[in-house]
Amino acid sequence: xxxxxxxxxxxxxxxxxxxxxxxxxxxxxxxxxxxxxxxxxxxxxxxxxxxxxxxxxxxxxxxxxxxxxxxxxxxxxxxxxxxxxxxxxxxxxxxxxxxxxxxxxxxxxxxxxxxxxxxxxxxxxxxxxxxxxxxxxxxxxxxxxxxxxxxxxxxxxxxxxxxxxxxxxxxxxxxxxxxxxxxxxxxxxxxxxxxxxxxxxxxxxxxxxxxxxxxxxxxxxxxxxxxxxxxxxxxxxxxxxxxxxxxxxxxxxxxxxxxxxxxxxxxxxxxxxxxxxxxxxxxxxxxxxxxxxxxxxxxxxxxxxxxxxxxxxxxxxxxxxxxxxxxxxxxxxxx
Length: 335
Ligand SMILES: NC(=O)c1ccc[n+]([C@@H]2O[C@H](COP(=O)([O-])OP(=O)(O)OC[C@H]3O[C@@H](n4cnc5c(N)ncnc54)[C@H](OP(=O)(O)O)[C@@H]3O)[C@@H](O)[C@H]2O)c1
Hints:
Layout: E1 9-15, E2 24-30, E3 38-48, H1 50-57, E4 73-81, E5 93-97, E6 106-110, E7 114-116, H2 123-127, H3 130-143, E8 151-154, H4 160-171, E9 175-180, H5 183-191, E10 195-198, H6 204-211, E11 217-222, H7 229-235, E12 236-244, H8 259-264, E13 267-270, H9 278-291, H10 293-297, E14 305-310, H11 314-323, E15 329-333
Parallel strand pairs: 8-9, 8-11, 9-10, 11-12, 12-13, 14-15
Antiparallel strand pairs: 1-2, 3-4, 3-6, 3-15, 4-5, 5-7
Helix pairs in contact: 3-4, 3-9, 6-7
This protein binds NADP nicotinamide-adenine-dinucleotide phosphate.
């Protein structure tokens, strides 16, 4: 395939200092070359995730070795291929989990973290997939062993993570409760097949226990952390699994009665995607391609796009995310 020649330089949005959205500033840098095992992607769209916002504010340092520029997921076309990569050809349309640096015109990623764009999805839709699908799959389904017949509780049901979890639970026959902080968000949860709980009006533990004949939730995906810990334990069913993957409600749980863990044989766990090795991420990519890509290609799961912004307006994209009004994903479009 004849590809346009690579330019010498490109724009990458970087975090100039820890602070507000205006800390996101464009830099002109050399186009990177893919190392062995990597591909260079000509980025067409880049997903915005809460971890980017937390990192910009100085609350989520990138792990050692990661690109400190923001952007954890991209879609685009393969522009160059590193030594030893056989699974992609130049020009292939892909989406990928990146190790930072996604808010850019080009991005290098380990080839194992890239997947073909599911049939029929746009670059914008594809860029909205990797970070949340890798995270939800690894936590809810692999570590949390969610399966058909389970009852799930998803906190932040309209977040990028939450909408993905709802779609995957529907796909795999899991009855799902989800929390959100408003009626419009609750309506969106119901459209995704979930049973909505407006946490500003109702206590989620009471609702789940009442509607499940006191069984509770077999698996809980939690982005809140400390302030939800006791109520999550109260909501768990026997042999339930609590996956803590975010700390928007603080990292410290207070006054925990550990007896609930023993009495319920509860499993309390969690994980972070960024600190996983390239091999672990590649294994998750393979599992997604086998188990989830058909649902995306057949339109049973379609990423929900709240808004798009040009790359030059990355700061506005962060402002929108920080307003907390969004439902689904925010995506940057790249020329
Ligand atoms: N462990 C991992 O590997 C991993 C990977 C990706 C993301 N995450 C975590 O998952 C969480 C969700 O990420 P996302 O990109 O899906 O986020 P998002 O789309 O921005 O959604 C976050 C939602 O959380 C709710 N929320 C409640 N309290 C909040 C607070 N104090 N500040 C901000 N939001 C609050 C809001 O919904 P309501 O209006 O309904 O309250 C908000 O819409 C984040 O904590 C992120 O760090 C973890």
